[in-house]
Structure formats: C-alpha cells, structure tokens
Amino acid sequence: MLESMTDEVAELVLTDNADQNDLMGTSRANAASLLNVHARQIKQLVAERGLSRELEALPSEKEIRRRAEAGIGLTSPELATLMAHVKLALKDEVLASDLPDQEVFAARLPHYFPSVLRDRFRSEIRSHQLRREIVTTMLVNELVEAAGITYAYRITEDVGVKPVDAVRTYVATDAIFGIEKLWRQIRAADVPVATSDRMTLDTRRLIDRAGRWLLNYRPQPLAVGAEINRFGKKVQELTPRMSEWLRGDDKAIVEKEAAEFASQGASEELAYMVATGLYRYSLLDIIDIADIVDRDPAEVADTYFALMDRLGTDGLLTAVSALPRDDRWQSLARLAIRDDIYASLRALCFDVLEVGEPEESGEEKIGEWEHTSASRVERARRTLTEIYESGAKDLAALSVAARQIRRMTRTSGRGSSG
C-alpha cells in the first residue's frame, strides 16, 4: 500500500512547495506597496507574541522608515519569516476556537491524505487524533496562499473583527466565488510570471472586497454554511451573464484586461473570469437586494450595472485605488470612500427598483427615477460634473464625489435579507 501511494504523496509535496513559491513570488511583487502593512504586522507580532526582530532577522522600525523613503519592501527571506509567523499566529487562533470541529471546515480533512487512505480508512480519518490540527493547518495554508500574507491582518484591522472571523469569511468567499479553482487555473496557465502575478492580485481584490461585504452586511459570527447556500448557486448562475449587463466604460475595461490576459496565453474563459472579478463582487449586493425586494436577480443585476455606467462609479473606484496608502490612516480613508460609493450604489438600486417596473430595462428604470427625483439628482450631478471635468482625483475631490452620490439616495441601503 505504501508503494502505491508514492507518486501521489510526491505530487502532494511538490504541489505544496509550488504553492509556497507562488506565494513568495506574488509577495515580492507587492512588497514595496505593502511595506507599511508588513511593518504593522511585525510590530503586532512583537507586542503580542514576543517576536524578536534580531533573532528573526527582521528589519527595525528605523530600517523600515529608510526603506519606505527608498521605495523598497521586505526581502524574500524576510517575507518568508513573516509568513511563517503569520501562519503560526493564525493557527493558534483557529485551534482555540470551534472552527476545526464544524463540518463546513472539517470536510476538507480527508483531502489531506492520499486517495488510497481516503478510500480505505474514511471513518478512521474522521476520528484521527490530530484532526483538529490538520484541519487548522489546511485552513490557514489555503487562506494565506490564496489571499496573501496580509489578508487576515488587514481584515481584522479594517473591520474590527477577530482573526477567526477572517478565516470564516475567506472560506465563505472561496466557496461562493470558486476562488480555489480559479487560483489553480491561474497557476496552471501558461503565462509569464508577471501576468500570473497580476491575475493573482486581481483575484485577491475580489477576496478582499467580498470578505468585507460579508462582515459588514451579514449577521456575525458568520454562518459560513448558510451564506454559501444563500449566495453560491446564484453567483454561479449569474456569472456567465456578466457580459450582458456590463455597459460603456465598465464593459470596455473588462474586455481590455481580458484581451491582455488572453494575449499572454490565458484561456479566454479564465481571462474573462479574472477580468470581471471586481464586478462579480457586486453580485453579493445584487442577490441580497433581490431577496429583500423579491425581484429576479437578473433584473436587479441589469439595473445595478446600468447605474454603475450612468454614474461613472468605476472611474471613481479606480481613482480611489490609485490614492496613496503610505500609512494606516490613508488606507482607512481609501477604504471609507470605496465603501461609501458601493453603499450608495446599493441604496440607489433600491430607489430605482421602487419606481421601475420589472419588464423595463435598467436605463428605463433609471430614467423614471431621475424624473421623480429630479431636484435631488440634478444638484448632485452638477457637483459630480465639476469634479469629473476638473480631473481632480485626490482624497478631497473623491470624498466630495462619494458624498454627492450618497445625496442622491432616498433609502439607507444598509438593510440585508435575513
């Protein structure tokens, strides 16, 4: 039996090594832009876990300031050390919780073992004395490798939740959007390293935004299995129809990026799936709105993306992403503006659906809404036009733009289906 497992065990080991190398590659590519986040992570590990910078050969705060001025990030050995300590800290948090005992997490346990053992010792594997530790290791490795070294830290810092909540929301996001499958397809694609890194980082943006949405709009602690059941199937059904609903600049942006990925060797299907990532994120709002107002999700999607096009929100969101994030406060300011834009878009979708008929197109519904809300919409649009025409894309201008979109709304848009 041992001999029969040799090839599969070797493949599992090689896959794990390849995953680690891929993680280090994308981490190096993003090291300079994430230096301040890495610095805060190191500082937290020093304060909470007694990490020694000297023993672990990690840079001092003075050295980090020097690198920030020079535009240099952590080195590969430093990133590897940080990754190891991030995983250890996450494992301790997960082991201290009941996550490894819940079926939605524990279901991955058999996949740790070769297929021969899975087939012959199914019940024994389920009762393995180290099952909690194995499940925890699998969970943490999946999260860090797919979402990155900083994901759990940024989620806890930005939203104010615990590390186990970051694990919950990652597992839900993974299942709802098929992140693991997408990640494997990117890894297997015959594309240059720079393209693979770019596709991975695009996918991580989807993970980030979907994770924050689940933490902000769904009851906590997140009922992972229930959320997967609520959103997973509908996301799968709506995803192939994205090209029907995207308009104008949004459609052009996706098609341009997908063409770039395909030109580098990615399949057309994979290229389009990655390119639509940040738009697929909006399917969470769309499905939730449809549940609340009892309308067809396809109708809501058509209305939602018509609103995005009408208001030019993608241009604003792109400008927000280009804002500096040299410290925590700049990062939080960017996040606040982005959340405000998405929340206003959600609220406006409720307003537009309320005045429109199901059989009308998104544009027709928006036309009726603009007519019934003429004074409120016109005031906001004048200011938005000034901002767009001025070309101003700094924090102040984008904050005002987000506020003007919010002023168009009549409902709060903050509610969520049960």
Automatic annotation (TrEMBL):
GO terms for molecular function: glutamate dehydrogenase (NAD+) activity; L-aspartate:2-oxoglutarate aminotransferase activity. It comes from the Bacteria. Residues 72-406 form the NAD-specific glutamate dehydrogenase C-terminal domain. GO terms for biological process: L-glutamate catabolic process. Coiled coil: none annotated. This is Bacterial NAD-glutamate dehydrogenase family protein.
